Amino acid sequence: MPKVLVVGANVGGAIAAGDLAAQGWDVTLIERDLKRKKPCGGAIPPKAISEFGVPETIIERKTTRAVIIGPSGSEVAMDVRGSKKRPDDYIIMVTREVLDRTMRERAANAGADVREASFVSHEQHADGVRVKLHYRDGREELVNYDYLIGADGAGSAVAKSCGRAPQRHASAIQERLALPDDAMAYYENTAELYLGDDISPDFYGWVFPKSDHVAVGTGCRPEHANQTYQFLEGVKRRAGPKLRGARRILLEGHPLPMQRYKKFVYGRTMLVGDAAGLVAHTSGEGIYFSMASARIAAQVLHLSATDHRTALTRYEKLWQKKYGAMFDFLEFLEQISYTNNFAREFFVDMCSTRDVQRFTFDSYLFKEMAQLKPGDHFQMAFEAANRAIATWFWKRRPIADAPPLITAKEALQATRQAIREGVTADAVA
């Protein structure tokens, strides 16, 4: 069977490697640092369990309640459920490094050769690819493969080697906080999202519960990257007493792709997950789409190798057919929801309506677009107009200031880590 190199031993790379190894392929899966912890909120939909076999044993929380807080402090609490009530109406919380390690071990058990190495560059040939690898002991090696899969995240070295122009990245910063039992009890089944200029002018802030701590974070575009520390402090200031007695476990930063590529295939090379820019707008969700793109890529690659009538570019077409409309909708939603505090306040208000909740949770939990009944479009438009007027005239209370909880030096180090990895990442996603 053919030889394939998968760069990036994260969930996406592990899915691609495991799927191909199970088909008898000669698979090499590389990661620059197998012990590395990737900053990530760690929220995944239940669909990941059934579709990709994520084991129940690594689930830390099943969150059934989401609270979204607007710039003024206005709140909307939502039960996590889509158009139809289902037994898996919840958001799964995992620790990212545990998920990566679990899926990587599964790929190894399927027959993939997992190595600690860095991708440097490659050359495309008619009958394969020639790849330059760098090992931690300083050795470099040139190896021939039939195909190459880049699952190496934002700032993908594989994408750059394909001739892609460097992609602009958002910067995400996150702090893992251990809470006393009484404070942790509030977050037992609750995830929080915060919106406002004090949180991020571009995205949102989050407090996601794990088994023994919470992950608190936010993100922003490059032009605001030097303010990530202040934005993180904004999230903690808003959460206030709910984070009482917090003890920091870890402060971390990471780049996020800002846009998806239109092209995922370059000759015998395929890009998946963050390396292809496949991160959902509004939510920043990347884990599920990394796994989904990796599976589609592996299926098309296997079919193409056994039936030469199938072109690798079929991967792009299948992705667009399955998820393109959803990405377009989420991109539009981001453009109208995060532009300023008025738009954010309006978005929070609209989240109290059942139709918006259906759209949100159907797309997140089940990767489906909610179906509207005849007349629903007009009803939603009328309600949106009413709520926009109400939001405009409603006097919003200001948010109180509070002292910072981490030093500027520490936040600067995390921000530099995010920027550095956005520029030099070679085998992480």
Topology of helices and strands:
Elements: E1 3-7, H1 11-22, E2 26-31, E3 43-44, H2 47-52, E4 61-63, E5 65-69, E6 75-79, E7 91-93, H3 96-110, E8 113-125, E9 128-135, E10 140-145, E11 147-150, H4 157-161, E12 169-178, H5 181-184, E13 190-196, E14 200-209, E15 214-220, H6 228-239, E16 247-257, E17 265-266, E18 269-271, H7 287-306, H8 314-337, H9 341-350, H10 354-365, H11 376-393, H12 408-424
Parallel strand pairs: 1-2, 1-11, 2-8, 5-13, 11-18
Antiparallel strand pairs: 3-7, 4-7, 5-6, 8-9, 9-10, 12-15, 12-16, 13-14, 14-15, 17-18
Structure commentary:
The chain is built from twelve helices and 18 strands. It is an alpha/beta fold. It has a domain at 3-37 and 95-166 and 258-328: FAD/NAD(P)-binding domain (3-Layer(bba) Sandwich). The strands form three sheets. The protein has an eight-stranded mixed sheet. It has a seven-stranded mixed sheet with strand order 6-5-13-14-15-12-16. The longest helix has 24 residues, at 314-337.
